[in-house]
Structure formats: C-alpha cells, structure tokens
Amino acid sequence: MIMSKISESIRTIPNFPQKGIMFRDVTTLFSNPSTFKETIIQICSYWKHKNVTKIIGIEARGFIIGSCVSLELELPFIPVRKKGKLPFTTIEQSYKLEYGEATAEIHSDALNQNDNVLIIDDLIATGGTALAAISLVKKLDASISGCSFIIDLPDLNGKKKILDLGIEVQTLCEFSGH
Ligand code: AMP
After folding, report:
1. So what's the pLDDT on residue 138?
2. Quick check: pTM over 0.70?
3. Which of 24, 38, 61, 105 is flagged as catalytic?
4. CB of 124 closer than 6 A to ligand 1?
C-alpha cells in the first residue's frame, strides 16, 4: 500500500533532460509531507538494527533523503559531491554517465575503518553513481552496510551490480524503462 503511495507521488517528465529519458521527479514526493514521512520511516525501520554508523548522501537529491534519515537515526551525515564542491582535502572517483564521465568526491577525513555506512540516493539506474560512492567508502577503509534508493530502474541493471558485490540494497518502488 505504502509502496503504491510512493510510486504514485512521483511525477514522470518524458524526454528530460534529453530525448528518450523518462525523468522520475521526486520533488512531488518531497512536497507531500505524509508520503515523504512514510518514505523516511520505511528507510529508517529497514536499517535501524543493521549497525550503521554514518549516512552517506549522494548529491543532490540524496542529500534531502539522507539528511532526514540521519536525523531520525541520530547518525552523522556525510556528503558525496561532484568534483570541486567540497572545501577540505578530498579523495575522488570517476565514473561513466550515459554520455561522458563525472567525478565524485568525499572529504578524506569523513570515514575510517570503524565505519559501516548506508549510502542513499533517490534513484538507481545503471548504478554508476552508487558504485563510485561505494569505491570512495572502500578507499577510506570503511565498510558498507548497504544502499537505499526510493526508485529502482531494473531494466538498467544497477541494483543487480551492487547485489553482485555482496552489498544489500533497499528500493521502495520501480519503474520499467530508462
Ligand atoms: P546511475 O548512475 O545511472 O545509476 O544514475 C543514477 C543517478 O542519476 C541518480 O543520482 C539519479 O538521481 C539520476 N538519474 C538517472 N536516471 C534518472 C531518471 N530516469 N530520472 C531521474 N533521475 C535519474
């Protein structure tokens, strides 16, 4: 029931930002307080007994979801950002986009070997962005408790790539296609 409430609250914009992409717009979920709250409750209840020590949010929509989860679970929030945005010393990881390449960064002192993180974003498609975040966590010798996304695009196989690494993945709804 809640799953259909979540998927119904997400708006689809065809051909944004380019032709052929069905953009799954979570701003309509964020603007519905009861569905947004239910979404955060679903994520927190799934992860609360899994020994997570820090929440990683991926820029930009992962910041919105991740910061709510971090406050609810009373855990530190750590941002993963596009290259050039974080002010302190960083480490970086490049990854492939549908067209071209991007680089993600994390502060070099954000995690250590005692950490077990939950990585959060709004949507997983090819998995490139989440896999870059996973690499950054591993480079800082921290462990990964799992990843959580509101939306899975199963036709693009990203969730499977993460599961194949032995990492747990929570998704709350799915849409077919790109
Ligand atoms: P990927 O790296 O291919 O898994 O793409 C995931 C990232 O791109 C996430 O940060 C999403 O917010 C964004 N993204 C990719 N495809 C879509 C889509 N169809 N609708 C909305 N956001 C998308």
Report:
1. 98
2. yes
3. 61
4. yes
